[in-house]
Amino acid sequence: QWIFLNGSYVKKEDAVISVYDHGFLYGDGVFEGIRSYSGNVFKLHEHLVRLYESAKSIMLEIPYTQEEMTQIIVETLRRNELKDGYIRLVVSRGVGDLGLDPANCREASVIVIAEPLRIYPKELYDTGIEIATVATRRNRSDVLNPMIKSLNYLNNILVKMEANLAGVPEALMLNDQGYVAEGSADNIFIVKDGKLLTPPGHVGALVGITRNTIIEIAREKGYEVEEAMFTRHEVYTADEVFLTGTAAEVIAVVKVDGRVIGEGKPGQVTNDLLAAFREQTVKDGVK
Length: 287
Ligand code: PLP
Prior knowledge:
Number of strands: 15
Order of helices and strands: EEHEEHHEEHEHEEEEHEHEEEH
Structural class: alpha+beta
CATH architecture of the largest domain: Alpha-Beta Barrel
CATH class of the largest domain: Alpha Beta
Helix content: 25-40%
Largest sheet: 9 strands, mixed
Shape: globular
Bound molecules: pyridoxal-5'-phosphate
Number of domains: 2
CATH topology of the largest domain: D-amino Acid Aminotransferase, Chain A, domain 2
Number of helices: 8
């Protein structure tokens, strides 16, 4: 396996970074997770825009242009002979000293890893998944904006651990006011009376690229979609619930905190949108 590391392609065993890298010491950096389908990188432009905007927000200079980064991603896929893969882009503040001050870091570290996919087993897309809400809260956009896809993922990791303890594959975070925000690495949609609702970013959610794609597809298909705040009650009483994310794509949720959603199986709207999404992933993308 070949990994792009600071300007060179190196073998996985040789892909190591300094213990003084501020990405490691402080989680000072940003990242993206991107998918490639049949050799096409899906929504690459959108992912790069989010990466560069996250970096800009934390005043982190990425030493490559978006065009150069595109070439690096395509080359990493090529070297690993991957057509369907998951690409992880990491840009950290780079090597500094033990102080917090990023001024001591001379240059950002840039890493691109491409791997075959590891997502939920196929059966779960047919049956839907059970999720739980957990105690870990999502900060709202007035604190560290969740729109910054930073290397500080402790919140999300705590959510994942709570999900593991509860014996479910994913869990939902609420914000400090009790509004539903998102999963550990997915956005949430609920369907009620044929209308789709998803929380706005300011509730405390990363505005996912899959989420935006689903909004677009749903509107094209004539569904009404609204960004709205809602609580657990609206989730429990929804006709359908599903999660969206680069890794998960679109996955139905059939039970939340022990409450069966709708008829307890993936609903018609969810299936309709998943099929349209899959169609789009093979059509679109950067070669
Ligand atoms: N929310 C969080 C916290 C995430 O890390 C991700 C994954 O990137 C998502 C939502 C879904 O976003 P996207 O569809 O852009 O992958």
